[in-house]
Design brief:
This protein has 226 residues and is an alpha/beta fold. The protein has helices at residues 52-55, 58-65, 73-80, 148-152, 171-181, 201-209, and strands at 2-5, 11-15, 18-22, 44-46, 68-72, 86-89, 94-97, 100-106, 123-129, 132-136, 158-162, 185-189, 214-216, 223-225. It has six helices and 14 strands. It binds nickel (II) ion and manganese (II) ion.
């Protein structure tokens, strides 16, 4: 699996020859000006919740690629009404497509569309393909429920966790979350985009390393393989 950090909470994932874009927010991100939205490939768009900073570029990507949206039930009704292709799931649900297993996990946050439409419950996801597993937490606080992940799906090879604080957990709680999910390798996201979530990179990375973990704060556009 190839995972590309596209800024804020947006990821590009390549698995089994398929392209998945998670929580597209590129055109509104000053830090992601060098990412060309129009050149992104997408078979699927995976959405954790309905907040603007996770869905801003959904319509543009769908018009360009005809990608299918994977999200919770309420968001699937919202996009279904626009005649977009959707696969609606709900918390704890799982299914497999194109050799990629998708499981919806618990996230503690809120979820409404920018126009006020109810966006259902927020979620994270676990994606599994060819024996590799990534946990994408979504916007969430630290929760005890994260301890269920290694028990139910097995330990992830990579945990993608919010580290910016203010709207989600910060890096200190994310370090505990890494323990809960049984994964010492963390890709941090949801940081630096806006003033309240700016973090000190060396302080955050050091916080992880003295606790025997690795925090990756990737450049926007940078990829890693698991
Ligand atoms: Ni949010
Ligand atoms: Mn957010």
């Amino acid at each position: 699996m190839k995972i590309t950090y596209l800024g804020h909470a947006c990821l590009g994932i390549e698995a089994n020859g398929k392209h998945i874009i998670v929580d597209p927010f590129i055109s509104g991100n000053e830090l992601a000006k060098h990412i060309d939205l129009n050149s992104l490939k997408a078979d699927y768009i995976l959405l954790t919740h309905a907040h603007q900073d996770h869905i801003l570029d959904v319509d543009k990507i769908v018009f360009k690629t005809s990608a299918t949206i994977i999200c919770n039930a309420e968001m699937s009704y919202y996009y279904g009404a626009k005649e977009f292709k959707t696969i609606g799931m709900n918390t704890g649900g799982n299914f497999e497509l194109d050799g990629i297993k998708v499981k919806s996990t618990i996230a503690f946050h809120s979820s409404s569309f920018p126009d006020g439409t109810y966006g259902g419950n927020p979620n994270g996801y676990i994606l599994e393909c060819n024996g590799k597993r990534v946990y994408i937490a979504g916007d969430t606080s630290l929760t005890q429920e994260m301890k269920l992940i290694p028990e139910t799906t097995g330990k992830p090879d990579l945990a993608v966790l919010p580290v910016g604080g203010h709207f989600t957990m910060g890096f200190e709680d994310a370090c505990i979350a890494a323990d809960f999910v049984g994964c010492d390798k963390v890709l941090g996201y949801h940081f630096d985009t806006f003033p309240p979530i700016k973090i000190n990179h060396s302080e955050a990375k050091n916080y992880f390393s003295v606790r025997g973990k690795e925090l990756i704060l990737a450049e926007i556009g940078e990829s890693l393989m698991i």
